[in-house]
Amino acid sequence: MAAAQAVEEMRSRVVLGEFGVRNVHTTDFPGNYSGYDDAWDQERFEKNFRVDVVHMDENSLEFDMVGIDAAIANAFRRILLAEVPTMAVEKVLVYNNTSIVQDEILAHRLGLIPILADPRLFEYRNQGDEEGTEIDTLQFRLQVRCTRNPHAAKDSSDPNELYMNHKVYTRHMTWIPLGNQADLFPEGTIRPVHDDILIAQLRPGQEIDLLMHCVKGIGKDHAKFSPVATASYRLLPDITLLEPVEGEAAEELSRCFSPGVIEVQEVQGKKVARVANPRLDTFSREIFRNEKLKKAVRLARVRDHYI
Amino acid sequence: MMEEDQELERKISGLKTSMAEGERKTALEMVQPAGTDRYCVKFVLHKEDHILGNSLRYMIKKNPEVEFCGYTTTHPSGNKINLRIQTRGALPAVKPFQRVLNELMNVCQHVLDKFEASIKNYKNQKASRNEPTF
């Protein structure tokens, strides 16, 4: 019984010991364990696999994938970061830049601005094609001139009052449709995602006048094309109490973990610790600094449950 | 060997362009180390990295006929991987490779289906609770 349990643990849990992590690698390949059929079976995979979306809003998505292996989960993560295409500013034609920001710095900043455009509707630009056609390029114009505000108070020192147009935001970028893009994309659908990103600051007499070409690219080429700010995963924590923990020790135990993980209940007049929600734990391993309690707990992660 | 190689290459590039987005011309070479037969083969995949390498390695190892499978990147800034497969002698080494490419596509398709269903489910749940969806 104990041996079977140990094998099961080795197959399904990554164990965090005091000084190291055990069972890190996937070992459930055919031939490694007698009595287990580990050959790839699409049906068994489909039966065990599920996806649960935990939280989704405009800027972030959290979901659980259960029943998949690290190799494939990591492949998805890497693909999200590096190989999902987006549109971003690639070429900047500067007509006039008398601001204090150098041309190349300005061009670099413009490249990093996220553009709201569905890359599936565009093609990659052919190599060697300098001009760009309507099927692979988006054009934006940025033209801002800073002037002194004639109605400002005499002794004011607030730049917002003294100058007009002294901050260049992404909302100053205007989209210039090429070819038939005006028919395909209604007014206002092609724009920078956020219109309050500060691009540069100006003072009276300075002007920025430039034309930007956006192309489709992938994150592998340049990080500006990466569609995500970041994509990461973690394994579901699995905390088991190897022996019952009562009384004052129970309170201590609950303090060693993130709030909400360990719950202390009153059972027959004694305080007993119970694992309530291991998912919330961030595994600071505070428990190992406590001499008495570190033997009472086994910290592990479920090998095929990705959050 | 040459015919198999070409046929395999056609199949691979066919699978690749349907799997990847955009145009990435993938080249695939098959190298037979000297002194071995067709049960031990090394594939050189151009323009690939750990994304495909690790997933293929995992899927190939799940095949009980495969005795050994491993992959390396030749250089961290380089753009190709070496994938070596050795079978127990019942199948030529290209067979698990072909099978795994199809299996991986099935896996990804299934994940995509489940994911889209889950997103739709979540949006419906939010709508039924009258929270704003986007």
Q: What structural class is derived from the secondary structure elements of chain B?
A: alpha+beta
In the CATH hierarchy, what is the class of chain B? Alpha Beta
CATH architectural category of chain B? 2-Layer Sandwich
Annotated CATH homologous superfamily of the largest domain in chain A: RNA polymerase, RBP11-like subunit
- As for the CATH topology of the largest domain in chain A, it is Gyrase A, domain 2
User: SSE order of chain B in H/E notation?
Assistant: HEEHEEH
CATH H-level homologous superfamily name of chain B: RNA polymerase, RBP11-like subunit
Quaternary assembly: heterodimer
Rg of chain B computed from alpha carbons, rounded to a whole number of angstroms: 19 Å
Q: What is the CATH class name of the largest domain in chain A? A: Alpha Beta
Largest sheet of chain B: 4 strands, antiparallel
Pfam family, one (chain A): RNA_pol_A_bac
GO molecular function, one term (chain A): protein dimerization activity
InterPro entries (chain A): DNA-dir_RNA_pol_30-40kDasu_CS, DNA-dir_RNA_pol_insert, DNA-dir_RNA_pol_RpoA/D/Rpb3, RBP11-like, RNAP_Rpo3/Rpb3/RPAC1, RNAPI/III_AC40, RNApol_insert_sf, Rpo3/RPB3_RNA_Pol_subunit
GO biological process, one term (chain A): DNA-templated transcription
Please outline what is shown here:
Chain A is of the alpha+beta class. In chain A, about 20% of the residues lie in helices and about 30% in strands. In chain B, strand 1 and strand 2 (about 40-45) form a beta hairpin.
